[in-house]
Design a protein that fits this description.
This protein is of the alpha+beta class. It has twelve helices and 14 strands.
């Protein structure tokens, strides 16, 4: 792909593919342009990305991106490239050609394994939906047709990891155990919890978030540290939708110990505008945003030196109390790795249940 016109076609292809599909939620076109703009997205400062379109009889029938994140290769010490933004008609020949072209491009750059989908990185939208196709995705979670799994597996891709989305409603009371642990930890460990200070988001707060993120998540599968530029870029994106009541920082004896960020599910409003804020989409978003009663907890981490103290229970408890008070009565916790048993056990002890599964595929090149 070489021209601005082809990039526009690449971005807009899902609108045609999913037309008439009731549960696909169109992302904002402006956000997709920003995401794929090498001049504006700092991800491209350390990555190589090549987009491909598949054509037949003058019509686009599929798309895919080949991605080499040099920060991932260096940090994980693994010569693995990624595929992302995969969309395709139900046609094995088309899908096979897209994957084969991506694999060739990655091999030419020294990669020995392909992982995906990541759109474009593990810090963005990842995975392929494997079930619950009759439910809307929440903010920054993917949706795809059921046949995508067959297309991937027929092309030789196999499961690398499954990611779970947990669901809970406020009518399920938070467990006495979590409440007792949270209260005990808060008292004994001199724990304080406060919401993000939005006025200081790009100064003190962003530094605190980075301290936690680049410590707490280092052992997670697929982790890549944020650069300063990426963190600021992400903070600008979060600022548009964050509600401080459910975006929390925890301190132990005054030292930053953990972060938990939940966001209102803006997809509840975005369903109604087909990806376009103007000329009338913004008014619709503001109207339907009043009806949002669900949040997505997209990040919860505790620095290693403070792990095992029970701060996760403090975050669950505080998010539950503050969230319900702010009018949020449902929540999705996503995504959680299938082998993250401490987090999964906490979710299930609380009363949350797995209601969606997303899959990351891999293939040796």
């Amino acid at each position: 792909m070489r021209t601005a016109k082809e990039l526009r076609q690449f971005i807009m292809y899902p609108w045609r593919l999913y037309r008439g599909t009731p549960y696909w939620v169109a992302p904002l076109v402006s956000d997709q342009r920003l995401l794929l703009d090498p001049k504006k997205n700092p991800f491209f400062e350390h990555s190589e990305v090549q987009h491909f379109l598949a054509w037949r009889d003058g019509k686009i029938i599929g798309r895919i991106s080949a991605i080499v994140d040099h920060n991932y290769v260096e940090f994980q010490q693994e010569k693995a490239g990624f595929f992302g933004f995969f969309e395709c008609i139900d046609d094995q020949e088309a899908a096979g050609q897209l994957f084969a072209t991506t694999e060739k491009w990655l091999r030419e750059r020294g990669m020995v394994r392909m992982i995906g989908p990541t759109n474009p990185s593990t810090n963005d939208t990842v995975g392929m939906l494997t079930d619950a196709f009759d439910q809307y995705p929440v903010l920054h979670m993917p949706y795809n047709f059921p046949y995508y799994l067959r297309l991937c597996e027929a092309a030789g891709l196999t499961k690398a990891r499954d990611l779970y989305a947990y669901y809970m409603e406020s009518k399920i009371a938070i467990s006495d155990k979590i409440r007792r642990v949270a209260e005990l930890v808060t008292k004994r460990r001199k724990v304080t919890v406060r919401p993000l200070n939005m006025k200081k988001l790009f100064t003190e707060e962003i530094a605190l978030i980075k301290t936690v993120y680049n410590d707490a998540w280092t052992r997670n599968w697929g982790f890549v540290p944020w650069t300063e530029a990426e963190l600021e870029h992400t903070a600008k994106d979060l600022k548009k939708v964050v509600v401080p009541d459910v975006a929390l920082l925890a301190f132990v004896d005054g030292e930053i110990a953990g972060v938990s960020i939940s966001l209102p599910d803006l997809n509840v409003a975005l369903r109604h505008i087909n990806g376009r804020l103007f000329p009338f989409g913004l008014f619709k978003v503001l109207w339907y945003a009043r009806k949002i009663d669900i949040v997505r907890t997209l990040a919860l981490g505790v620095r290693k030196k403070f792990q095992g103290l029970g701060l996760d229970a403090v975050f669950y408890y505080e998010t539950y109390l503050r969230g319900t008070k702010a009018g949020f009565h449902r929540g999705e916790m996503s995504w959680i790795l299938e082998d993250n048993y401490p987090m999964r056990n906490a979710m299930e002890n609380w009363g949350a249940r797995i209601y969606k599964t997303y899959r990351i595929y891999g293939k040796e090149l």
